[in-house]
């Protein structure tokens, strides 16, 4: 629906029957995008059509993938890798399926070969050979059975398929993604989002291998080959260093596991990260995440219009809790003057800490009339099982919009995609204020106490960039800091002046809605004549 401007004209005069003039507002059209790109809301996504012959197999007419940019020029650069990956998916024809099935079967044969090499009898029977008139009994081996099976594969699928099958079964070649599910089973704590990142990075690597005619095996990816892939896929295409390094880190983590569990000798991705070549002025901020400043805290807490986002910001600022930890709080987690984190990013994050005294009115208001299993922020919807988003995602998006509206933003250059400040800057601010308390002589807590409060690893950990010494002596043996020490640490953090938590303000009303103008029909319209 278009937008219209109501021109009152002379309607404010004596003749109330005058007709209103409604004029359309010409909204700026979105920037034109190149081939295979389209706008989806305020984001850009890649779109490729599915050939009619593959509609039944794929199940939809188009493949789409959103990009992490709103800049058409940057989208042009990023779409190249996405299109390669999507087209590689479309090329998943019957031959690809057969190759995948053969690879899985070859891995099963590999297990039998490894068991026999370890001294286990995996096949029975023997063959009698006659040599110079003497009978020799030769027991069958798994390799004999494998050779016969490879002959059948060569007959059915060709010589190359048979050779590849034998190489995989004998442990000479390992398809790039054949062990990925085993890796995820062992890393069951890994988030769904990070798993998708690893799959995406491997898909990029496989598409590049197809293009460059490199075998899609772990053994074929040497350090030199990895360097070529990085240059072709990221450097030559001017991929943002942060995005490129994310892919490289994902590949490196997979290779570390392959070295540990499957005897791969080297990790070709070590030392392959890409340095940012963005010119840096000395009078400009660096591209590093940082805490909010006092002025930014004051501007945010007095300017955020959304009650839920303001309350969650205050809790994070006065507890050091992560966004998803605050969003996951239930009424029973806020009892007895404490805050209990039951689902955290790391084992160290599972903790119970005192609630800041300034949070008592907020918690009382949010828990009033709710059962113990109700969420403190019960207006956040649960996400679908298997979703990469958690229930805190809407808060992160709404907070970002409010932060930008209030002008709280910092980037080292125009090419920097993410701001140096985000919601996590509340947690950084809390830690910075607690460290400042130690610097000015506050008593009753130590840096190791602060690590326990924010859910960091106290042993061999660090706070605000400062390494914690005596890891075993102070981090492991003393255990978790006592509740009184935690309370001293938390109470040392104070909001700047003018940030009254329960004060009436623009946030105390309901979520702002877009104003609408009701248009009365003119006397000449059919509705007025009726």
UniProtKB/TrEMBL annotation:
SUPFAM superfamilies: DNA breaking-rejoining enzymes. GO terms for molecular function: DNA binding. Residues 520-530 have a biased composition (Low complexity). Residues 405-417 have a biased composition (Basic and acidic residues). Keywords: DNA integration, DNA recombination, DNA-binding. Residues 287-491 form the Tyr recombinase domain. InterPro entries: DNA_brk_join_enz, Integrase-like_cat_sf, Integrase_catalytic, Integrase_recombinase_N, Tyrosine_recombinase_XerCD. Residues 381-418, 500-530 are annotated as: Disordered. One of its GO terms (biological process) is DNA integration. Signal peptide: none annotated. The keyword DNA-binding applies. Belongs to the 'phage' integrase family. This is Site-specific recombinase XerD. It comes from Methylobacterium aquaticum. The lineage of its organism: Bacteria, Pseudomonadati, Pseudomonadota, Alphaproteobacteria, Hyphomicrobiales.
């Amino acid at each position: 629906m278009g937008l219209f401007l109501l021109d009152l004209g002379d309607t404010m005069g004596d003749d109330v029957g005058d007709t209103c003039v409604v004029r359309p507002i010409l909204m700026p059209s979105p920037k034109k995008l190149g081939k295979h790109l389209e706008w989806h809301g305020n984001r850009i996504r890649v779109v490729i059509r599915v050939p009619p012959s593959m509609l039944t197999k794929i199940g939809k007419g188009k493949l789409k993938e959103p990009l992490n940019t709103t800049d058409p020029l940057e989208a042009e650069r990023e779409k190249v890798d996405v299109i390669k990956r999507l087209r590689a998916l479309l090329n998943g024809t019957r031959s690809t399926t057969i190759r995948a099935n053969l690879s899985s079967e070859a891995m099963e044969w590999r297990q039998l070969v490894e068991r026999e090499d370890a001294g286990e009898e995996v096949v029975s029977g023997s063959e009698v050979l006659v040599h110079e008139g003497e009978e020799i009994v030769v027991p069958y081996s798994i390799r004999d059975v494998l050779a016969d099976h490879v002959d059948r594969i060569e007959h059915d699928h060709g010589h190359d398929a048979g050779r590849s099958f034998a190489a995989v079964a004998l442990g000479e070649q390992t398809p790039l993604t054949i062990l990925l599910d085993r890796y995820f089973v062992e890393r069951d704590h890994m988030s769904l989002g990070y798993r998708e990142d690893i799959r995406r990075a491997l898909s990029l690597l496989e598409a590049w291998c197809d293009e460059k005619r490199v075998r899609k095996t772990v053994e074929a990816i040497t350090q030199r080959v990895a360097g070529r892939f990085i240059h072709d896929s990221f450097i030559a295409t001017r991929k943002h260093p942060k995005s490129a390094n994310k892919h490289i880190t994902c590949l490196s983590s997979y290779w570390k596991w392959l070295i540990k569990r499957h005897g791969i000798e080297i990790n070709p991705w070590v030392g392959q990260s890409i340095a940012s070549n963005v010119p840096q002025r000395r009078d400009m901020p660096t591209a590093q995440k940082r805490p909010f400043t006092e002025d930014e805290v004051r501007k945010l807490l007095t300017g955020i219009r959304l009650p839920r986002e303001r309350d969650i910001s205050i809790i994070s600022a006065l507890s050091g809790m992560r966004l998803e930890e605050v969003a996951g709080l239930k009424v029973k987690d806020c009892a007895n003057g404490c805050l209990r984190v039951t689902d955290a990013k790391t084992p160290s994050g599972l903790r119970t800490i005192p609630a800041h005294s300034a949070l008592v009115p907020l918690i009382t208001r949010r828990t009033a009339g709710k059962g113990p299993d109700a969420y403190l922020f019960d207006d956040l919807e649960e996400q679908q099982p298997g979703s990469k988003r958690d229930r805190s995602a809407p808060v992160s998006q709404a907070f970002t919009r409010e932060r930008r509206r209030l002008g709280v933003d910092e980037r080292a250059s125009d090419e920097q995609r993410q701001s140096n400040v985000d919601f996590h800057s509340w947690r950084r601010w809390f830690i910075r204020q607690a460290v400042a308390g130690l610097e000015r002589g506050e008593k009753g807590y130590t840096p190791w106490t602060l690590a326990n409060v924010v859910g960091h690893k106290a042993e061999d950990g660090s706070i605000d960039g400062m390494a914690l010494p005596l890891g075993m002596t102070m981090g492991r043996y003393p255990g978790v800091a006592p509740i009184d020490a935690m309370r001293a640490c938390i109470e040392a953090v104070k909001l700047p002046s003018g940030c009254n938590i329960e004060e009436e303000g623009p946030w105390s009303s309901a979520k702002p809605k877009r104003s609408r103008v009701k248009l009365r029909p003119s006397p000449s319209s059919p509705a007025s004549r009726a």
